[in-house]
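Need tokens for this chain, all 111 residues.
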Amino acid sequence: MAIKGIDVILYGKTQTGTDDFNRPIYEETAETVSNVLVAPASTEDITNELSMTGKRLEYLLGIPKGDEHDWEDKVVEFFGQKFRTFGMPTQGIEDMIPLSWNKKVKCERYE
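Here are the structure tokens for all 111 residues:
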């Protein structure tokens, strides 16, 4: 049996214009990213992240090789719930990693 990820919806913002005060107007866009690994955070990871950043780590996402999406501070949806990514994605060298994923993204519950 091969390891396979799930579809995750990644929400982004696209500037569609400006308002009367010349501030940007954004439209939310949703894009499905396939084959994303979703793993619950360990108790140790949750405790460490909470003490270092004040954020409660819920899940770690494994992003497939070749993915060019911006994962920093984005809303993602999976398992019928929304989460917000935080921190910089951790990335390894594609050719040096044997499986299909080379980025790791942290996310917290988003309400």
